[in-house]
Amino acid sequence: MAEASPDKILEDLMSRHTVDTESREFMERLFNTSLNQKEWIRTQIEERLENWDITRVAIIDLLVLQMMIAEMVFLEDIPPKVSIAEGVEIARKYSTDESSSFVNGILDSVYHSLEELSVPGE
């Protein structure tokens, strides 16, 4: 099976759900930022994993972390604590029993180092 392009994935997602223009624009910004900054974001995650390899992180947890870190760092109109709460809730709903604590710990660590981070494009 061929891998779908990011544009095709986003188009497919949008075709399945009815969203207002503002929500659609936000979803596109978050999706594209998560993809465009993927390597930098993954580095931030890897630096916070203790005795754990990123390849062992559940894919849903990794995706939640990528999106919420993108939101906290690059989409400044969302308060970081809101991003953390959303990430924890998504992990609690869609991942393992331990995932919400894991996601909270990584996002909290990123939050507490926001001012010291060397962010691409700054």
UniProtKB/TrEMBL annotation:
Give the Gene Ontology MF terms in alphabetical order. RNA binding
Q: What does the entry give for GO biological process? A: DNA-templated transcription termination; transcription antitermination
Task: Note the InterPro entries from the entry.
Answer: NusB-like_sf, NusB_fam, NusB_RsmB_TIM44
Which residues lie in coiled coils? none
Any one GO CC term of this protein is: cytosol
Q: Which UniProt keywords apply?
A: RNA-binding, Transcription, Transcription antitermination, Transcription regulation
One Pfam entry name? NusB
Which ranges carry the NusB/RsmB/TIM44 domain? Answer: 12-111
Name the family the entry cites.
Belongs to the NusB family.
Name by which UniProt lists this protein: NusB/RsmB/TIM44 domain-containing protein
